[in-house]
Amino acid sequence: MGNILSISGLSKSFRGLQAVNNVSFNVREGGITGMIGSNGAGKTTVFNMISGVLVPTAGTITYRDQDITGKPSYCYTDMGIARTFQIMKPLRHMSVLDNVISGALYGRKHYKSAKEAKEYAEEILQFTGLYERRNWLPGEMGTPFKKRLEVARALATDPDLLLLDEVMAGLNPTETDEAIELFRAINARGTTILLIEHIMHAVATLCEEVVVMHHGEKVAEGTPEQVMNDPYVIEIYLGKGDDD
Ligand SMILES: Nc1ncnc2c1ncn2[C@@H]1O[C@H](COP(=O)(O)OP(=O)(O)OP(=O)(O)O)[C@@H](O)[C@H]1O
Ligand SMILES: [Mg+2]
Asked: What distances in angstroms separate CA 134 from CA 16, 103, 130, 131, one per listed residue?
């Protein structure tokens, strides 16, 4: 399959700070692509431009052969792009189930009834390990479950391309492995995933292709094995003697 997303010469500066500098990469349709890099490398800024939160200073974003550079953020759900950060806060006074139902109702699937939307939301809750908490309020859950809820709400819009920004942060090793299985299952249903992640084990397990960012620039790309054996990547990112 071809590329669902192509980024070309993408740049973003904030009052003289070059947060993203001339970054180009492709996301293969049907795959899982990873983005790694040190803090402040510009990863989230790239996501913000792909999802319409920020307008690039330069460069183009092509989605399904269509130039979507600078499109306003409300267009993205209908195009089939969802991200975990887009909906910053859960709907606080609604149950976990109702949060996911609202994602389903505003998504691309056109339900004939509220019952259908609820059934789909319940399926998503099963998928994301939130079903037992479906009647909780978001504020009653810890960070890992709140992050799962963000994934669930994004997933409920039925995206073709799902952007995950560090959704495994704060998970213990068992929870991380569960999240890896979840993302595999999401991908197996046909959703292309682009994920920013610091947990190298997760990146190595999930991703076929990895883009490495440093100081706003793409400094390497390739398979997880290729980038993790790249001396420059080891120097700037993986650190001294860490062979994990
Ligand atoms: N809206 C903004 N205004 C000004 N500077 C910003 C803005 N957003 C990001 N930056 C700066 O741009 C740089 C890149 O930030 P970004 O959040 O993209 O990094 P990141 O790779 O996601 O880092 P992390 O791993 O810590 O999440 C940082 O120096 C950050 O302070
Ligand atoms: Mg970030």
From this structure: 46, 14, 6, 5
pTM equals 0.92
Return the half-sphere exposure (C-beta side, CA atoms, 13 A cut-off) of residue 38: 13
Query: 16 CB under 6 A from ligand 1?
Result: no
Give the whole-angstrom CA distance, residue 138 versus residue 122: 16
Q: Going by CA atoms, what residue is nearest to atom 9 of ligand 1?
A: 45
Q: What are phi and psi of 108, to 5 degrees?
A: -90, -20
Q: Ligand 1 centre and the CA of 10: distance in Å? A: 15
Q: Give pLDDT tens digits for 179-195.
A: 999 999 999 999 999 99
Domains of the chain: 1-80+160-244 (3.40.50.300), 88-158 (no CATH)
Query: Tokens in use for 96?
Result: 């976990």
Integer angstrom CA distances of residue 90 from 106, 107, 145, 153, 242: 14, 16, 11, 9, 37
Ligand nearest to the CA of 84: 2
Ligand 2: distance of its center to the CA of 141 in Å? 22
State the amino acid at position 16 in one-letter form. Answer: G
Render pLDDT for 37-47 as a digit per residue (tens, 0 to 9): 988 999 999 99
Q: What would the pLDDT profile of 211-227 be if each residue is shown by its tens digit?
A: 999 999 999 999 999 99
Return the ligand number nearest the Cα of 48. 1
